[in-house]
Amino acid sequence: MKNLLNPKWILFLNSIPLLILSFILYNDYSIIKSLLDEETHSLWFQFSSALTLLFVGNLAFAIYHYIKKIELNYNYAIYSSIFYLVYLYCYFQHLNEIVPSTIPDWMISGNLFLHMGTFIMPTLIHSILIFTLIFTKDIDKASALKNFLALIAIPIITYLTSQIGLPILHQIDTNFSIHFIIIAFILTTFLFLFFLIRLFYILILKKGNAWKKYQLAWKIPVCILFPILGLLINNGVSSFSQLFVNTNGIFGNFSSPWFYLFALVNGVLLCLPKFKNYRLELLLFALKTILFTYIVYFFFVFLPYLPFALLAIIALGTGFLMLTPIMIFVIQSIQLYNDFNGLTSQFSKKTLLIIAVVAFSVLPATITFSYIQDKSVIKEALEYVYNPDFEKEYKIDIHSLENTLFSIKASKKSKDAFVFGENLPYLNTYFNWLVLDNLTLSDTKLNYIERIFFGEKNKSREFLNRSTTKDNVTITKANSNSVYNEKQHAWKSTIDLEITNHDRDLSEYATKINLPEGCYISDYYLYVGDKKEYGLLTEKKSALWVFNNIRNENKDPGLLYYLNKNTIAFKVFPFAINETRKTGIEILHKEPISLTIDDENFTLGDSLQRNNNLETKNAFYVTATAKKNLQKVIRKPYYHFVVDASIDISNKATIYTDIIEDIIEKQPLEHKSKISLINSYTETFDYNSNWKKNNTKNTFKNGFYLDRAIKNILFETYKKQSIETYPIIVVLSNNLNKAIIENNFSNYTSNYYESELFYTINADYEITSHSLVNNPLETVNKVSSIPSKNTISCLKYEQNGQTYLLKDNNQLSVLPNATIDFDNASNKNWENGIKMQTQYLHSIFHPKEYQKEWIELIRASFASHIMNPYTSFIVVENEAQKAALLSKQQKVLSGNKALDLDEETPQMSEPSLLLLLAIVLLFFYYKKIH
C-alpha cells in the first residue's frame, strides 16, 4: 500500500480519469452549446477552466516528485482533498444551471452527476490513502480501538447534532443552512472514510498477539458475510430459496451464482492463515490475485456512491454494506503486497510480477473472450435474419445466442430500474461497445429473433406513444410544378402542400407515398413558424431516433424516409388545434409520372416534351419507350410447396403430404414441383418418390420462419432469370397466425411479375390467397383451388450477354448492377439516383458485401443530395438537434447495419437516477430526525 506514495499513481488515479471526464463533457457541450444562454456559457467556461487548473496542478505535483525522486506527502493530499472537494461542491451546487432543465436528456451522453463522481472520486480516495499512510507511520503505536471508536462516533455525533442543530438552522437564513449542511456532510463523510480505511490498514498490519489471535472475528464478517449479505439485499432476496431468481437489483443485477461464489471463495482465501509450503502460498497468491479483479470491479461500482455511505448508515442501518468493497480492497491489497514480499525469498520478482499480471487478467480475459463469442453469434444471427446470404448454410449457436439476447435485454431493462436494475455496471458498457458497437437491438427485433430460433415471443416493453390519427389532419391545399432539364434529360418537380389539423391538439400527419420506378426525392422543406427550413439529408436510423426524441418534446420535426424500395413514409409533427403547416418535396424523374399523396393526384412532367431519342441500351435502366420494342414472354408455372415444420405442427405432417399429392394429381403442371420444409431454417428439395421420407424424418422445432422460406424462393427466381418458368408459392400450415414475417416482400419481387399472390392451405384443405407486397398474413380471398394457368406476360431484355426480365407496363424499369462509380456524383443529378437504386436492388439479393454497400450508398446519397433507402430527409428546429443528429449518425455508420440506436418510440426523459437515490436517502434521513 505504501507504493501509493509513488507519484506515478497521480497519472492513473487523476490524469487519465480527468481526461476521460473532459472528453465526455466536451462532447456534451459541443451538442448543447447552441441552446445555452450567455450566463450558462460562462459557467461552462469557469468550470472547465477550474478543471484544467486542477489537472495541471496534479500533473505538476507528479512531475516535480518524479524528478526529485521523492514520495508524495501531506502537501499533495491536502491540495487534492481541499481543491477537489470544493470543486465538487461548487459543481453540484450549479448542476441545474450548467445543464438547464430545458435541455433534453437525449442530447447528453449520460448522467453528468454520476460521471463527475466516478472520475473524481479516485483522486479523493488516493488522498485519503496518503493521509492514512502518513498518520500511521508507526503501526505499533497506532490504536485500532481508538480508530474504531472514532469511526462509530461519527454517525452517532452526526445524528445527535442533526437532532439539535437542524431546528436551530431552521431559524437561520435558508441559503446559509443549506450550504452549512452540505459542507458539514462533505467533511464528515471525508473523515468517516479516512477512519474506515485507516482502521483496516491498522488491523492488517498490527503485530499484537490479540489482533493475530482474534483476526477471524472481524475478517469473517467483513470478508465473507458482508459481501454475501450485500448481494442478497441488493438483489431483493428475502430467503435463500430465492437466491438465484433473476431480480432487479438496486445497484445492478448481481443475482448470478458466480457473484456469490466469487464472494465466498475470495472471503475464505483472505481468512486463511499463512502456510509454510511456499508452492501452496504461490497458488493462494495467484487465486487471490485472480479474484482481486472481482473486488476492484465492485470498488469502482460503488466509488461514486461513497459520499452517500454515511447518510445511508444513518438512514437505513444496513448502509454500511456500501463500504464493503472499499474495506475488502484495503485488506486484499495489503495481503497481496505482503504475500508478494514473502514469496520473493523463493521466486524472482520478475516471475511473481508475470504471475500477478496473468492472474489479474484471467477474469477480464474470460469475459472478453465470452463477449467476442457473443459478437460472432449475434453477427451471424443478424446476417441470417436481416442480410442473408441465400447460398450459405447457417448453423447458429442457439445457447450462445440465447445468452447474448438476455444480456441485450438486461442492458435495455436497466433504463427503467432504480439505479442500475438488470444492468451490470461497466460490464454492460463494455458489452455494448465490444458486441454491439455501442448500439442496441430494438424490442421488435429481439422478439423477432426469439420467435425464429426459440419458437416464442416475449412480451415487449411498453413505450410512450401518443395516439395519433390521420383523419383529423389532412391536405387542404396542393400545388405542383415541373421543369425539364435538357442537360440531364430528366424532370425536376416540386410539390407544395398545406396540411391542416381540424380538431385534435398535438396531432401528427403521417402518410405513405408510392414512387414510380426511376423517381427520387432530392429535397424537402417544412415551415417552422414563419421560417422555411430545408431538410438535412442524414443516415435513416439516426434521423428516426432524433425525430422520435424531438416528437416527445412537442417540437417541430418533419421526416421523409423509405419503407421499402418504392414506398416513402412522410411525417410532420406537431399540429396544434386548427393549425395549418406548409411543407413540400422535390422529385427528380426521367419521364412524366402520375403521383398520389392521400387523395391528391399529381401529374408531373409533360409527355409532349419526353425525349424519345435516348439510347435504348443502358447499364442502369430501360425507358418506357424502349420497352415497347421488347419481346413478350409468357412463362409457365410450377408448384413450390412450403411446409410448416415448426414445433407446433408435428401432428399435421402426414396430412400435408396427402394434400400435396392430391394437388399434384388433380392439377398437374408441366414442370416438376419443389418442396421446402421450414422452421428456423429452410430445407428445399425436388418433389419425387422419396420426398415423404424427408418430411417424416424432419425434426419439428423452433419457429415458423415463413419470411426466409419465401425470400429463398424469390431469390432463386431472380438468380435463374428463367424465361420459361416461375413458382406458384403454396404454404401448408394450420398456424399462419404464428408465421414469422418481418414486413412484406416488395423488395424481393424482381422477376416475379405474373402474380402478387401466394396461397395457404390448412389441414382442412381450406385455401386462401395472400399478397406478397401488402400485409402477407392477411387473407385476400378464399378460393376453391389454386389458379395454375398464366396469361400475364413479361418482357425479355438482353444486354452484354445477360438476359433480364422486365415488367410489361408503360414505366421505366431499373436494372440491378453492382459496379457503380459514385466518385463524380454531382448535386441533384437524376443519373445518380438511378445508380443508387440499381446498386440497392443488387444488394438485396447479394448481401455478402452489404455493410460496404450500405456505407457506399449513404456516402453517394450525401454527395448527390438524393435520398435513398438508407438515408432520410429531416427538418430539425435548432443547431443542438442537428449536432445530436450528426453525433448519432457517426455512431451508426461505425456499427453493424442491422443494429439499432434505440426503440422506435423512446420514452420521455426521466430525472437522474443517482439524484433519485440521493432524494430517497435524504427522505429516510429526514424521517429519522423528525
UniProtKB/TrEMBL annotation:
Species lineage, top-down?
Bacteria, Pseudomonadati, Bacteroidota, Flavobacteriia, Flavobacteriales
Which InterPro entries would you find in this protein's record? MSEP-CTERM, VIT
Record's protein name: MSEP-CTERM sorting domain-containing protein
| Species this chain originates from | Flavobacterium jumunjinense
Residue ranges of domain VIT in the record: 459-589
Q: Which ranges does the record mark as transmembrane?
A: 9-27, 47-67, 74-92, 112-136, 148-170, 176-204, 216-237, 257-275, 282-302, 308-331, 352-372
State whether keyword Phosphoprotein applies: no
Which key words are in the record?
Answer: Membrane, Transmembrane, Transmembrane helix
